[in-house]
Amino acid sequence: MESVTEEFPFGNETLVFKVYGKVFALTNIETFTSMNLKCDPEYAVELREKFDFVLPGYHMNKKHWNTVLLNGSQDDSFYKKQIIDSYNLVLKGVPISKRKS
Known about the structure:
- By secondary structure, the chain is of the alpha+beta class.
- Helix content is about 30%, strand content about 30%.
- Strand 1 and strand 2 form a beta hairpin.
- It is globular and about 40 Å long.
């Protein structure tokens, strides 16, 4: 993953991952019980209907964000896919001119 930064803009507990300055993931590093991840709106609804550990994004735009509970109900590949999908979705919105600088 290119140009990823980690920041704490909301206090010492909330770790925010950004790509080219745009948020693609958030988690509480004190509890690490969930992650907020950007998601295609239709896929977000599909995931919420299929899995009880995928919820509308907490404190986020519920159309575009999911909160994924990290309760061990899925193997790591599920979580990694959601993180990569979130990263790619946000990266797609970054202008190419900004990505090359």
